[in-house]
Specification:
single chain, mainly alpha, 65% helix, 0% strand, elongated
Length: 205
């Protein structure tokens, strides 16, 4: 049964995907309700009925982005070694930041760059979202320490933070126009700081 306020033929997931792109390109503050509803192909009444207010819509857009566009991060955590986890994440991240069919950069970074009159709610929400990913990576790296894959003196929390700093820095540069090859060159350097890099097979040319 259709939710009250939705017009017939309303595809909630497709409309949410279009909202993701608007927020991605313009950020939370820069995306007006008119921009959003025009892109989504619905009116404000339908938007409020289906998603709630603008902040509610943004939170759902970020969840959608995490599910679809960040699937590579979850896949990276399944790799057999810590080095492979980090390399898979940073390589796939560099590719995702420069996809031809998506806006450059990262929604979770760009969405909150411009601080507005929301008392930092959006920036805080995005920071918490990124921190959740960082903690998942730290947990995986801690397991690698326990298993002897990483040296016993490795700080998994600090290493996870380092990886995320590289990822987020690449996102900012991608949004500014950096090409994929430049991001991968940064990844090449960053990987040298990861224990196990000297045992890893060379990346394909």
């Amino acid at each position: 049964m259709a939710e009250r306020g939705r017009p017939r033929g309303f595809d909630a997931d497709a409309a949410l995907d279009r909202a993701v792109e608007v927020f991605w390109r313009q950020g939370y503050e820069g995306a007006s309700l008119s921009d959003l509803t025009e892109a989504m192909g619905i009116n404000r009444t339908s938007m409020y009925a289906a998603y709630g207010n603008k902040e509610d819509l943004f939170r759902r857009a970020v969840a959608r982005y995490a599910e679809a566009d960040m699937a590579y991060a979850r896949d990276a955590l399944t790799r057999p070694t810590a080095y492979a986890v980090v390399e898979a994440f940073l390589r796939a991240n560099a590719d995702a930041l420069t996809r031809a069919d998506r806006p450059p950069g990262c929604l979770s970074v760009q969405g909150g760059l411009a601080e507005g009159g929301d008392n930092g709610h959006i920036a805080g929400f995005l920071a918490a979202s990124r921190l959740a990913g960082e903690r998942a990576l730290a947990d995986r790296l801690a397991r690698a320490v326990t298993e002897g894959d990483l040296p016993a003196d490795t700080d998994p929390v600090a290493l996870a933070r380092y990886v995320m700093v590289v990822s987020e820095g690449n996102a900012v540069h991608a949004a500014a126009g950096a090409e994929r090859t430049a991001l991968h060159a940064t990844v090449d350097i960053a990987l040298r700081a990861v224990p196990g890099h000297d045992r890893a097979a060379p990346a394909p040319a």
